Amino acid sequence: MDRDVLTVSGVRDRLGKALFRRVAGPDGPANRARIHDTPGPRWFGPERPIRVVHGDASMFIGGLRALLLQSLHPLAMAAVAAHSGYRGDPWGRLQRTSTFLAVTTFGTADDARSAVERVRAIHERVRGRTAQGEPYRAADPHLLEWVHVTETDSFLRAHERFGAQTLASSDYDAYVADTAKVATALGVPDPPRTRAQLDSRLAAYRPELRATPESRAAARFLLVHPPLPLAARPAYALLAANAVTSLPDWARGLLGLPRFPGLEDVAIPLTGHVLTRAIRWSMSPSR
Predict the structure, then answer these.
(1) Phi, psi at residue 64, to the nearest 5°?
(2) Are 271 and 4 in contact (CB under 8 A)?
(3) DSSP labels for the chain?
(4) pTM
(5) Residue 113 and residue 49: Cα distance in Å, rounded?
(6) Torsional sign, CA 77, 91, 198, 250
(7) How does pLDDT run across 35-73, given as a tens digit for each residue?
């Protein structure tokens, strides 16, 4: 029995470390220690919903959904395609994003402010024109809000469906209010603070959205040609299927993403629950 327990524990530790290394990068352990162990006031106390949502494995599905949704704004997608290096360094981009989320959610207030200042400085340098000649700049509050509302909506919906801890509707309103603090610091002048406001703000962007060659290329990269070893691709494909099926119908239509008749109501969500539970298990501390 002890040998079996040790074997299971060893498998969990190896899986957890491999996954953490992919998501957090080589500096992950040091960043984690700094974020969680440094004393001092935080932007969000331990009781806040943002800690529940951002600390859950459902973020894997929510993050992929957010990237697909964000790609439908032609100015935002042009900035990503030209400046983010998501093709040449996709894991680096993921690691920087996950570290930013961790710092602003769990880190000290000073560390969170420093992280925001670094991101704002990067945004100020990102500017250009689309293939059609439309100017864009990453520091544009309107584009910043688009990125913010798509992330907030995606993380919320993924947690609502796959989160380990069920939250009340008032808690999801509080989650939107929590994320508004970070968005304001990044330069969004009036981010939504309730779920109803979030839904309304997303709907207001609809006339600006369209599929572009860049957005379709990003979707192919994320869904068909992910930078993963072959052994990891079946599990990733199931995560991706859950991200796709959670998108609104109009977004799936614009991106030309497939439908899965007979599977979307039960079978695909079941795989999402299994995978998020497996991620939690692998990344939980050993007893």
Answers:
(1) -65, -40
(2) no
(3) -HHHHHHHHHHHHHHHHHHHHHHH-TTHHHHHHHHHHS-S-BSS-TTSHHHHHHTSTTHHHHHHHHHHHHTTSHHHHHHHHHHT-TTTSHHHHHHHHHHHHHHHHHSBHHHHHHHHHHHHHHHHH-EEE-TTS-EEETT-HHHHHHHHHHHHHHHHHHHHHH-SS---HHHHHHHHHHHHHHHHHHT-SS---SHHHHHHHHHHHGGG----HHHHHHHHHHHTS-S--GGGHHHHHHHHHHHHHTS-HHHHHHHT----TTTTTTHHHHHHHHHHHHHHHHHSPP-
(4) 0.93
(5) 20
(6) positive
(7) 999 999 999 999 999 999 999 999 999 999 999 999 999
For residue 153, which of 72, 224, 35, 86 has the smallest C-alpha distance?
A: 72
Place of tokens 């691709």: 233
Structure tokens at 207: 């006339």
At 5, which amino acid appears? V
Q: For the chain, what's the residue count? A: 287
